[in-house]
Amino acid sequence: MAEDASQSPDFRLGWEEWVSFKDLGLPALKAKVDTGARTSALHAAEIEPFGPAARPKVRFLVYPVPGRNDLAIPCSAEVIDRRDVTSSNGETELRYVIQSDITMGGRSWPIELTLTDRGSMAYRMLLGRQALGDDMVVSPSESFCQPMLDYDVYHSTRVREAAPDRTLRIAVLSREPSNYSTSRIVAEGESRGHVVEVIDTQRCYMAINTMAPDVYYDGQRLPRYDAVIPRIGATVTSYGTAVIRQFETIGTYCVNGSDGIMASRDKLQAHQVLARHRIGMPTTAFAASPKDTDNLIGLVGRAPLIVKLLESTQGKGVVLAETQKAAQSVIDAFRGLRANFLVQQFVKEAAGEDIRCLVMNGRVVASMRRTAQAGEFRSNLHRGGVAEAVKITKEERETAVRAAKAFRLGLAGVDLLRASDGPKVLEVNSSPGLEGIENATGKNLCAALYEEIERRVRPAPARRRSKG
Fold it and tell me: Strand, helix or coil at 330?
């Protein structure tokens, strides 16, 4: 390629120029133009391949501003090749190769980029001769022949708004990959171009230390995920929340946090949380001493009443005692089994119906009414209940949102009873099933879940550093 500045080229470049890669979320990079190098190279850290073997992808971090380790832009792209590249100091390195559109001086064109650690280099980008068109001429004695950019763009909120829809790597913590909710979450994520992996919670183990806390699975360290979607079963709540705490320690975004899952699973603690936030619920009582049976019943009111195991799920371990004597018998039986339970007011006017509100990020995205079978007081779909879409009141909506916020859950199924004195929260479910409510409402609720995840894990604009 000629480098004679007297030729009046159509597109003139200096030995250093400002460039941008909008599809990688990099609006400004200072690049060294080097016609002595064949390939172009982009500074990348924490390079990690992922995705299917037929269409591999790579994730990496770019520190666009030299000396600013506090500003990291997460990027992802399809891998088009892996090749050996020999640097100017004679060292050969096997690098991932991606393709991206480079923009310079109002012109954009696709180029190949090799990914390598250029942290010690003054320029985060090296533009090689393979990326230059036939009408481009480089003047080695000049700098910035094309319009200049500025690193201040990384402080703007426009960076977040214009962030590319990069491929995310997401883990679903579930022991049931064929379960409807889990399989729907995986299918929806893949349809949006993400890589979604189902991780069996009980096969995870953890390295707990201050310098490098990690989660391991089948003998391998798990990669850094952009997000974790917990689907923790009731039987593994304790260990499952420990695994989530480890991801939280690492800094991974978890749709539901460990504290919220643990509190919602313990029925006694859950009702104490609701009471603390002054959220309506059926009158509830708890006692450990067998001498307090009659007093316990008296706190709730007259029969009929509900006796419920603290860790009941899907309607199991929930008994309707229609008389005082029946209530005493059930309580005695539970105590004989050394089971923890609570006694709760029976809301007769609900007439075997409840409302399931699905709350995401502080708003109700869907609601359905569940009606129990004839002769059954439990309306759970697992107990044969029937579901249909329902329009809820403003008070019911606000109650459901407040309940989810009380447990700090990003995704929650809030079950309400329509009582004569207003909505009563029965339960806050941190792993709500999606089949019944998607079928009843016809809504793609998994899409709404991913929209929130994508919003959360986009790179935020950097804080402007003080010059003092």
Answer: helix
